[in-house]
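@channel sequence for tomorrow's demo:
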Amino acid sequence: MQGDSVAVGGGPAAEAKLAAAHKALLNTPGVQFDFKATPDQKPPDWLEPLVQFLAAIAPVLKVLFWGGLAVGALLIIYFVVREIAPESWFRGKKTVIPVTDWRPDAGKAQALLEDADRLAADGRFDEAIHILLFRSIDDLVTRRPGVVQPALTSRDIATLKVLPEDARAAFARLAQAVERTFFGGRPADSDAFSVARADYQAFAFAEGWR
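structure tokens (generated this afternoon):
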């Protein structure tokens, strides 16, 4: 019992063992007991001009950041309002355009038909139909600057109210013929070209080409 009392309660022997264990712990490699403050790390010399530049324009960057957020928020609000508001809110006063102004120049139209006929005579019916549509779009771009946007497809153009109803229908049929043949991979023949040629005539001339 007395031996147990010395081991538990302490004594010279226990204190000596504790001191030895503490000393051994202090001398253990890899164990750090002295936590000094980390010295300030200066950036490399080559980085110093960049740090100074960023510090100088920090107010400008802050303004640009908040300005960008404001512009983004306004754009989101604009697109949301545009979806739910009446379409008339975003359109100005309609301009009355003479109906005959949509037609391509007669000389250019005749030259186009001759070019298409030459392609068809060589058996290149797909290309002949495509050139009729391509030149029709080019004519619309020339006659109606700003109406035919680059992002519009042929189907979109066929719905433009700037064209008379008959011309829209003819253009739509011509666009469908190109989708089936030139882009769709379905070979065209002379009959398909004749139909497309007649559609171009209906598109280009108010009373058709006689």
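heads up for whoever presents: The CA atoms of residues 158 and 172 lie 5 Å apart.
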